[in-house]
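QUALITY CONTROL LOG
STEP: pairwise intake check
CHECKER ROLE: data steward
CRITERIA: each record must contain a sequence immediately followed by its structure tokens, with no blank fields

ENTRY 1 OF 2
RESULT FIELD BELOW
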Amino acid sequence: MIQSSYHNFNNAKKVIRIGLSIYFFLLIFEGALRKWVLPELSTPLLLVRDPIAFFILFTAWHNGFFFWNNYLFIIILLCIISFFSAILLGHGNLLVALYGIRIYLLHLPLIFVIENIFDRDQVMRFVKWMIVLSIPMLFLIVWQFYSPQSAWVNRGVGGDEAGAGFSGALGYYRPPGTFSFTNGLTIFFALATPLSLFALIKPTGLKRWLEFLAFACVMLSIPFSISRSLFFQSIITFVFLMLATFKYTKIFLYQLFAIILTISIYLLSNFNSDLSTGITVFKTRFEIANESEGGVKGVLLDRFVGGSIDALTSSDQISFFGAGVGLGTNAGSQLLIGRRKFMISEGEWGRLIGEMGPLIGIILIGLRVFLSFKLLSSSYRQLSSGILLPWLLSSSVVLLFAQGQWGQPTVIGFSVFFTGLTLAAIKEACL
């Protein structure tokens, strides 16, 4: 009897892990399905991970791997209140409200399932996958970078021949990689950066040349993505690496080596015309955008902080229960007015307050910030024991969880999966 129960326990754990693996690979390749493989099903594929998330949660709950906590309880309670207020006092559209609340009922709880179900081997498996996938992803975006928007590789969602790239500089467009939009690519490489740095310092079990190649690809993704967000996020990751030396002094030489290697990659790129073109385009894009946004202050403060402060200071202008959950998403606007539009706010905190009202919105923001700081402090404490992975991952995960635009399916997917992975890495004391 005991042996049978143990067998069922392990089988359930295996099934949940398979489900989470499917969730991860759909997150990476969902855009490819919507653009290239099944463009005629691009709209339903937007929600392709939802049934997987439901299956994982149900299986975890049924087999005792899902545990309630105060954090989850408060968020789900607030979201249920927001759901009914959206129907009764807000936009009144049931489908829009369901689309908005699914973020919190289906996806957010996966964080704690991942934390409970992943052991050290599982954490390292996904670390390796991100490192390996960064190599073909770089080659793909270089192909997209040099191809016209009308090319097959640049097709948009639903096979749109106008292209999926966003305006960059000097006639080049920001490539989306395998994702539906460019923000997915930015987040992918923002997470691959700390993981590739970690692999330089503490070998993951992959071939050493593969880890070096992956690091070079991650660094070269910055100019070819033409993404200032990725550039600044990479700087934050390197700052986290430097801060780690205060608690983990043994990595100082590795830190120096990573910086020298990064500089060498860009210096050597100048001898290759294809690589140097990407760097030139990125520099031009950076200079033009800085001039229009008021320099580095405008880019950093207004982009990362200003929008959040504005959302909080203008909350008194919004009705108590807000306009209704789901209204601030692109899918919500598509359902209501027939086209994609930011009907509330392009910023995440503004969207939350606008959808759910000042009280519930600010509480939800506070809970997200609270978990982010908790994750940050827990990972920093582990540095004194020589545990580096959670701290480096936090450099990207903390901002993504606190401010990421969860109304976009790719963003909520990355936020959930890698927050859960970071918590699992802390629990398992992953090196």
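ENTRY 2 OF 2
RESULT FIELD BELOW
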Amino acid sequence: MWEKNTSACAPPLSLGLPVFNGEPFLQATLDSILAQTYGDFELLISDNASTDRTPQIIREYAARDRRIKCFRQSKNIGSGNNWTFVAMRARSEWFKWVSANDTYAPRLLELCIDPLKGDDNVVLCYGRTQLIDLAGAWLGIYRGDFDAVSSDPIERYRVVRERLHLGTPVQAGIIRLEALRRCGYMGNIRDGDRVLIAGLALIGKFVLLPQVLHYRRWDSSCASALRDPLEVQRLYKPNASRPPLFTNLPRQIGQIEVAVRAPEGIRAKCRALAATVRFTDWRRKLSPHLSDLPPMGRHRP
């Protein structure tokens, strides 16, 4: 079903770490990744023209671990483009993005890769997410994650469009790289992760493990869901002077594009396009599962 990696020297798993001014948490992130019980991977780091100590930290870790491969952008190319950059350089059968703000349980890679090995119909596997503050204190387990294991791609797509609020599946999980390629990687737009996740659901199943494996910073300095529209726009267009006039329109266009790209066959593409219309929601809602977080986890004006 899937095209296997043809590079004899490539490890089974590629990790991609896009980073911009990640000095506050980058060392903790790297320590948690390099301490994984599953160690047969390459780690691709792309520094998006950082102006803090990020380049120095990357060099220090790369000098100690041969699995790390470093890239530095000459200018800020936008967050989504940087996420795509590391994914496009992956050589393996499976891929995982790594957030420079977060940390990961030691067995994340070991546990998440097994369902992908065991079932060709699975394209993504992830564990539960513990939200943490800037000091690492626990704020609560995010209860909005879900699996999507129906054999019908439109049913999986419906589940994603109705239940997805945070992009934890792609931040916390391992993805089959060929499925990621078919979806076109990560769009350089707000909610590009949501578009991608919907596309992956059209290709294969999602498995959610019961263990907490991802520790995600939940603060307006780290989480785009807690930022105002102009701040978010500058993540993707660093020189933006105003937010887009129609904030959700790029996401809706992206849903149409991924419905054309991801499925194989005319009939499957037509069904996916019909589903984009049926399940369109022009609002961007924050998950109800975040409503009971303490004030430090919410947006600060």
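INTAKE CHECK: passed for both entries
DESCRIPTIVE NOTE, ENTRY 2: The first helix runs from residue 26 to 34.
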